[in-house]
Design brief:
The complex is a heterodimer of chains A (293) and B (318). Chain A is mainly α and 293 residues long. Helix content of chain A is 76%, strand content 2%. Chain A has a two-stranded antiparallel ribbon with strand order 1-2. Chain B has one domain. Chain B contains 14 helices and 4 strands. In chain B, helix 11 packs parallel to helix 14. Chain B is mostly helical and 318 residues long. Chain B is globular, with a radius of gyration of 19 Å. Classes of the chains: A mainly alpha (293), B mainly alpha (318).
Chain lengths: 293, 318
């Protein structure tokens, strides 16, 4: 039996996973980079994107792609507003204290989860892909939608990159990240930058959630794994560093696809959680950067 | 009367009331109180680290589970008598606390929280991965013959409500008095100094790594004691005791009752378990209350109930 088709399949699956992971982890990374807070509710924004996609698919009449496109616009918008509201109602009031932020975002995580459970019930919901077209490889056929995820992720990452490096908004973000107080003195509305950044980070996760839902069913507890993997990626790649995050997401996404061929998922998760812990213990300055002043 | 003397008298009074409650309450409420006392021990352990030393761990389920599994597995597989199994549980969690403490205490603040969370998550996943031994999700139920033991000729039966309550009460009383002693004298001052200003404490010549490690080990071992007690008394061990939610539990109890107060964990545990028991009868989504309270406490009452009372009226209520 030839191993090449298996490797190709695992690589493709890995690339799809890496794309979703890059988007989710970048959201977490941008928030940490600018605001120096860790958002434990990040996985729930991902879940809300997925559930939003399901709701749109149910409510929109017509072909599946119409619901999908609607979801791609509506779900991130709602999640972004929700995140901005959470920033205003909670994070601003505790003055972005790192430890208090973690506790209150854990609270936010429970609230979002349980509200979704109460509203939509405990069942996992499947959503149709917006288009079905199978790309024929010599050995197997592959869903073109999955490749669309990869392309969409590349486009979005590029857009974020341009936003950060080439626009006035990005300049304000970087100035705030560099020195919050000086930025404030120069008239930059730091409060609004923070709200905006928190919203953008949440929207990245929501978009990833919308993209993933034709592959994976929407469920109120589905935010757990993306959160864990985003932690792995963001910490291994260096918190707040965008190129590091992308590199780590691709590496971990690819290796996860390959590893799951050989190991059980639980064992792979044990390895990745231990990796995060040990990186933080033995390379705290190097990889956690300026987190602890 | 000195402040410490007042506090000690208050503790003894609370202990006397708790002991007397078993003669007044219905057997259902005595069972509920037994659970509250064990979980208070867990929260008191957590409080030593979070309240007194100022180190926020997100992984204390790991130590609770260490005590639970060390004692439970010893009883289940080797038929170790209950008294010895309990000691094995305490020893097991002490070993785990020292090892994790040595590693995790190299980090600070947010990194410390994430490291403890990750280690705890790895431990939880390990209980699932080795489900052939641990029973995984399903857990293991201890056989009936392992539910009673002989203490100096006195046969104690773990299926009897009164026996269970009095054992839980004894352990609770010992841990409460131990915490009182540990948080008063020189050691207690060092903990508070590390919380207040680690840099200055170090300049004064204290090895803060050792102080933190001692607090961490004491905290984890007390959490493990609660775990061992819980498993042996109710005759069930399962991986749900190791999950994230069980790490949040002592954090919430301590936060509500008052971090850094001796009786805060008891108050928080009592209020929260009663509230959650009520709500879980009404809705499946009772965890939403946990979420709301975590936010409400951080926003408006970061010092908890007893902490707020202490700051306003009674300085001695530490």
């Amino acid at each position: 039996m030839d191993i090449a088709p298996y490797l190709l399949l695992a690589t493709l699956e890995g690339l799809v996973q890496a794309s979703v992971l890059t988007l989710t982890a970048l959201g977490l990374s941008v928030v940490f980079g600018t605001m120096r807070v860790v958002n434990v509710a990040h996985g729930e924004f991902f879940m809300l994107g997925a559930v939003g996609a399901w709701v749109c698919a149910m409510l929109m009449p017509g072909p599946p792609w119409l619901g999908f496109v609607t979801a791609l616009i509506v779900a991130p918008a709602i999640v972004g507003l929700l995140a901005a509201a959470a920033d205003w109602a909670i994070l601003k009031r505790i003055d972005y204290d790192p430890e208090a932020t973690i506790i209150s975002t854990i609270g936010l995580m429970y609230i979002i989860q349980q509200v979704v459970l109460m509203t939509f019930g405990p069942n996992a919901q499947a959503v149709d892909a917006p288009f079905y077209y199978t790309i024929r490889f010599p050995w197997f056929g592959y869903s073109s939608y999955k490749l669309f995820i990869v392309v969409a992720a590349i486009v979005l990452v590029f857009a974020l990159w341009r936003l950060m490096k080439g626009s006035r908004v990005g300049l304000l973000m970087r100035a705030t990240q560099y020195d919050k107080d000086t930025a404030q003195n120069f008239g930059i509305p730091v409060d609004r930058v923070y709200s905006g950044v928190f919203a953008v980070g949440a929207m990245m996760a929501a978009i990833a959630g919308v993209l993933v839902v034709p592959n994976q069913q929407a469920h109120y507890l589905m935010g757990h794994d993306p959160l864990l993997l985003s932690f792995v990626v963001v910490i291994v790649g260096g918190l707040g560093s965008i190129p590091g995050t992308i590199a780590a997401a691709v590496l971990i996404g690819l290796s996860d696809g390959l590893l799951s061929v050989f190991f059980t998922p639980t064992l792979a998760k044990i390895a990745s959680t231990l990796l995060v812990a040990l990186v933080l213990v033995f390379k705290p300055e190097g990889l956690f950067g300026k987190a602890t002043r | 009367m000195t402040n410490d003397r007042k506090l000690l008298l208050l503790c003894l009074g609370v202990l006397a009331i708790l002991f007397a409650l078993q003669f007044v309450l219905s057997s259902y409420l005595v069972l509920a109180l037994t659970r509250i006392l064990i979980l208070s021990v867990f929260a008191m352990g957590y409080n030593i680290l979070m309240g007194y030393t100022g180190l926020l761990s997100l992984g204390h389920a790991m130590f609770f589970a260490a005590g639970l599994y060390a004692s439970g597995l010893a009883s289940y597989y080797w038929g170790v008598p209950l008294g010895w199994a309990f000691l094995i549980g305490i020893a097991g969690s002490a070993v785990v606390s020292v090892i994790i403490g040595l590693l995790a205490l190299r980090t600070e603040a947010v990194a410390f929280m994430i490291v403890t969370l990750m280690f705890s998550q790895a431990a939880f996943l390990a209980t699932l991965h080795f489900s052939k031994i641990t029973g995984g999700d399903q857990g293991l139920t201890l056989p009936t013959e392992a539910r009673s033991f002989d203490l100096f000729g006195l046969v104690l039966d773990m299926t009897h409500d009164g026996t269970r309550f009095n054992i839980a009460f004894t352990v609770f009383a010992v841990v409460l008095l131990l915490t009182y002693v540990a948080t008063r004298g020189p050691f207690g001052r060092q903990l508070v100094a590390v919380r207040g200003n680690p840099g200055r404490t170090e300049m004064l010549g204290f090895n803060i790594y050792i102080v933190k490690l001692m607090a961490f080990t004491l905290s984890g071992t007390i959490a493990g004691t609660a775990g061992a007690l819980y498993g042996l008394m109710f005759g069930y061990i399962g991986s749900s005791f190791a999950d994230f939610q069980n790490s949040i539990q002592p954090l919430l109890f301590t936060l509500v009752g008052g971090p850094g107060t001796l009786l805060g964990p008891l108050l928080g545990t009592a209020l929260m378990t009663m509230l959650i028991d009520r709500l879980s009868g009404l809705t499946t989504a009772y965890l939403i209350v946990v979420g709301v309270l975590l936010i409400v406490m951080t926003l408006w009452a970061p010092k908890g109930i007893l902490g707020t009372i202490r700051d306003k009226w009674a300085r001695w209520l530490n």
